[in-house]
Amino acid sequence: MPAPVITAVDLVKKYxxxxxxxxxxxxVAPGESFGLLGPNGAGKxxxxxxxxxxxxxxxxxxxxxxxDPNTHGPEIRSQLGVVPQADNLDAELRVRDNxxxxxRYFGLPYSYLRPKADELLAFAQLEDKAKSRVDxxxxxxxxxxxxxxxxxxxxxxxxLDEPTTGLDPQARHVLWDRLFRLKEQGTxxxxxxxYMDEAEQLCDRLIVVDKGRIMAEGTPASxxxxxxxxxxxxxxxxxARNAEAxxxxxxxxxxxxxxPDRVLVYAHxxxxxxxxxxxxxxxxMTSLVRRSSLEDVFLRLTGRSLID
Amino acid sequence: MTERSxxxxxxxxxxxxxxxxxxxxxxxxxxxxILLPSLYAGNARAVMHRGWLVVAKTNWLIVLSxxxxxxxxxxxxxxxxxxxxxxxxxxxxxxxPYAAFIAPALLAVAAMNGxxxxxxxxxxxxxxxxxxxxxxxxxxLGPLDVALGEIMLALxxxxxxxxxxxxxxxxxxxNLSLWALLALPAVVLIAFAFASFGMAITSxxxxxxxxxxxxxxxxxxxxxxxxxxxxxxxxxxxxxxxxAMPLWHGVELVRGLTTGAVGPxxxxxxxxxxxxxxxxxxxxxxxxxxxxxx
Amino acid sequence: MSSxxxxxxxxxxxxxxxxxxxxxxxxxxxxxxxxxxxxPRRFGSWYVAEHWFRTMRAYLQTMLMTGIGxxxxxxxxxGVGLATLVDQNIGAGSxxxxxVGAVGYLVFVAPALLCSSAVTTAVDELTYPVIAxxxxxxxxxxxxxxxxxxxxxxDGIVIAVSGRLLAQSTLYYLFMLLxxxxxxxxxxxxxxxxxxxxxxxxxxxxxxxxxxEQDKGQMNYVMRFVVLPMTLFSGTFFPLETLPxxxxxxxxxxxxxxxxxxxxxxxxxxxxxxxxxxxxVAYLLVLLAAGVAxxxxxxxxxxxx
Lengths: 308, 294, 305
Description:
The complex is a heterotrimer of chains A (about 300), B (about 290) and C (about 300).
Chain A: E1 6-15, E2 18-28, E3 33-37, H1 44-51, E4 59-64, H2 73-77, E5 80-83, H3 95-104, H4 110-123, H5 139-150, E6 157-161, H6 169-184, E7 188-193, H7 196-202, E8 205-210, E9 213-218, H8 220-227, E10 231-236, H9 242-248, E11 255-258, E12 263-267, H10 270-279, E13 286-291, H11 294-302
Helix pairs in contact in A: 3-4, 5-6, 8-11
Chain B: H1 20-25, H2 44-65, H3 68-85, E1 87-89, E2 95-97, H4 98-119, H5 121-130, H6 132-137, H7 143-171, H8 183-202, H9 208-224, H10 236-244, H11 246-259, H12 266-292
Antiparallel strand pairs in B: 1-2
Chain C: H1 3-8, H2 38-57, H3 60-90, H4 98-101, H5 105-126, H6 128-134, H7 139-145, H8 150-178, H9 189-211, H10 218-232, H11 249-252, H12 255-268, H13 274-304
């Protein structure tokens, strides 16, 4: 097994008394696609900023590419590509100039940057926007430009903080496609998300984070296998009756969760569970059988829904 | 500060409170929907009300601190520089202390600066960055309501500053005549003229760089319009040029009133500004679509 | 720390050498490229300055207009127009005419206008653009995500603004020569003095701008209660001695007063004790050093938390 490119041991970040990150330990192997999954405020972005060597840790150990970010920020950052949660493209520069000027921050020569900028514009499918103002781009285009910008130095590790938050479904799929290509090229990807489908699509392995701590770790499939049933039955009885019905349904399936708007029945076979519900004399207003997802894993681990 | 500090309402209509006065004065009823269709809803007071709320709730201290600026200038130039200059002969031949010479000029300059700032930079920002007008224009308000509301706000602010400045002048004994009281309406007139023009000019502006050009017009006016010394130091040709510019008329008008050198010649300055207001308002109204409905 | 030290002390995990090259034909920096991070560590400030200059280019027209218009207008209005009143009143040229009268108002006021214009430009460059870099157009965040260090960001801005101040002051000085406002052969020193004056005040303003996270109009207060009084009461338009004795401290704490007095020594051989001249230089340098140190610290704290 090759040596990890990121090693975190009991990583801690405190703001005064509040611990945003409270003892995270994980490793990321080269070429791996690694995800941090959790709700808003779980400490994902703070972790990403420490891994990106722009935020000083207050405890524990962290090694990026074999270097300590507290002392070797420039050396580490020159091998990273960072896509922050909020786009921070330079609004005073045109699209192509954003790539070139950003490359200058790495000390890269113009002779390298000019062809590179065109190559990256093609990669981001923005060739015809080269001379546009950043403000005139759509949300998806800005995101792709930010990713292109992060690639200007041929990074060994890409850090993506909620890369598709706020994008429409089509723009998300275009973006995922671009990220897949990077993965195929062997770039290590580290990404945070609170979208289950995104984590399942993009991550080889992930950790589920809540309140600055790791709740679970593994591949998406193994996490679902470990912490949830094969299928889930979602039934609605009307918001006033859900709790009452759930009480009466006890014993159906492996486990039951009551949400404000619906009841979740975890079972190996959703259809069988639904049959049992009707047998017991309940007529749900709507019913839906689906496969278990990371959302269910999270609900199981924390008792809370992932997107609040 | 709330709307209650406004002068008494000229007439109460449709539950409107005191803010309605100024807008009614420039709002013949026939205009609504006929002369200016889709531009004017007759509700500029809603825009003003919003402005006063912002001032009262958040930035009253900033607004109040604006009073400080002309007073500092007066102290530095009038008292400090005054010791170097001594007395000055005004355009009407009166010999006055330098502070009394410069104070009315500073008052006129403050009126110009405030009105121009409020009608250019302020509008430009709210238009392009704050996106405030987008929200306003999505209601029944028309662009003319917004324009008038902003101009009236600027005038109210100008009046506040002028009043404060006049009190300081009084304390230093720089109001040489009772006529000085009329300097207050004069300042409002000057501000109105600049504000009505400023907005029309802003309608042509697209970038910050272009906005900077406004300063390049203001600076020479500020420096050369008989503000710091009489016009007589210049060659005749330059004197004429300066006399064609608006600020000079403001300086002469206010100076005439505060030094008590009052005569029929002051009416020419008043006339200059009345014409400027009329032309400016027409110009602005024509440009409203370009300004607000981009 | 040199870059070699940096690379030879890996903390843990993979050695940085075994770089897995992507499979595709992505171009990469030339073969002889220095180790990662070495260039930014050494030249980062200059990359920041490069960015600042590049942004200035969009404002070149405005900067030229300011650079030419300001000296022309001010020197004419005050140095020629107002000077006729002052020189008449105090009897310029006569022995008992005092500090101003000895040389005439134009010569007296020109160095002050030069320094004050440098201060104005420095404030322009180091207030809203700095707030913007953190907040409205957060390119500082982007620079820091790249290998640039917060300290270098602060330094780079200072380098760029020094460049602009030097160019602008040189232009101003040429206009002073044109107006015949510089009797002394050492007058050109005023260019450097003005640049130093603008910078030493500017870096303090920059440090403050870097602390602003929410724009509540703080800059309005700075302009009204610091910059404007400083411009007016720093012995600029009239000697500090004209003010009541109780107000002289206004000048002593003002970098503009120190700069202006210094520029007067250079431009017309203004007589003051040598220790005072030394004090002017020392004061400006101390402010500059303190301001840069403060700006570095605040930038670092804000970007790395």
